Amino acid sequence: xxAARDPAADLRQIAFLLExxxxxxxxxxxxxxxxxxxAGLDVSELETRANAGTxxxxxxxxxxxxxxxxxxxAGQVPDYLRRLQAAEGSEVGEAAQALRDALRGDCxxxxxxxxxxSPIEEMALAAVxxxxxxxxxxxxxxxxxxxxxxxxxxxxxxxSLVDDINAQLPDGxxxxxxxxxxxxxxxxxxxxxELLARLDVVVGSVHSGLRDDADVMTxxxxxxxxxxxxxxxxxxxxxxxxxAGEGDKGHRAGRTRPESQFDAAAVFAACVVHDKAVExxxxxxxxxxxxxxxxxxxxxxxxxxxxxxxxxxxQLDWLDNGxxxxxxxxxxxxxxxxxxxxxxxxxxxxxxx
Length: 353
Description:
Blueprint: H1 7-20, H2 25-39, H3 43-52, H4 63-73, H5 79-86, H6 90-102, E1 105-109, H7 120-129, E2 134-137, H8 152-166, E3 174-182, H9 193-198, E4 201-205, H10 214-225, E5 232-233, H11 264-273, E6 277-281, H12 291-300, E7 303-307, H13 319-329, H14 342-351
Parallel strand pairs: 1-2, 2-3, 3-4, 4-5, 5-6, 6-7
Helix pairs in contact: 1-2, 1-4, 1-5, 3-4, 6-13, 10-11, 11-12, 12-13
């Protein structure tokens, strides 16, 4: 058996790496709190508790940190720490680049029709410069008035404009029609069914009631996932972990928000049954889902959409953030729907569910 490591040092190192990656403050604090508790106890007491399975009864120690402590005491690099350290290694860098090279478009972005800062044409030309073959235009739905969500009438106007813009864009690139539709409190989608049926890709996200009880949130999400019009479940926890990008009208800089609580196993299982993709949101202020849930969704068999949620042209280059997180968790390219051609993506969106 390997000699025991210093569990407090391992926990502090995890906290440091989480901070550097702009992960949520409450998650960082959980590791620092556990480190403080562990540092004040004898190794023999920790080993006794590890053998009895009672580490999580210590103040400031939860199930995740208890597992890390037990792995350290056994002389192993905690799996949580190993994954964080792997992000700095060349193998992860190469895997992330391979995913980035495989992406052919972006399924979640905004224009100045809602809370983005740039016209549709500018977003499209920036996507062309990045080598994309398509982008899905997903401005907000009417309920999100703070983000100038599109009424049915405005969405119809946008669809007509997209046809005109596509006729002027370089060959080999096209704008796919879409929406980031609010998931209402009852799980219905915040737009007319007739319009949702016309769109190429529909991203559905929760933007309200984010602190509802887990049972309430789970029922809401499951109802949306069973809706045949929904294709991609957007930023599933709704968390905010860092400052928003400059110029984002709908994102207040410097604010953080904890994860919404829901039954992840049930939600991801429903995504598999109804063939809906879970979004890997690349915004540095979201990075949603957290890696533990991303791994859980992968194990459940989910498909993914690796998106930027861009609100400005330069933010379309945020895909590297999502690719790195996907590589750390071992997400293969063939499980990511925007590695497909535009035709294949649209065909999937219109036939699954």
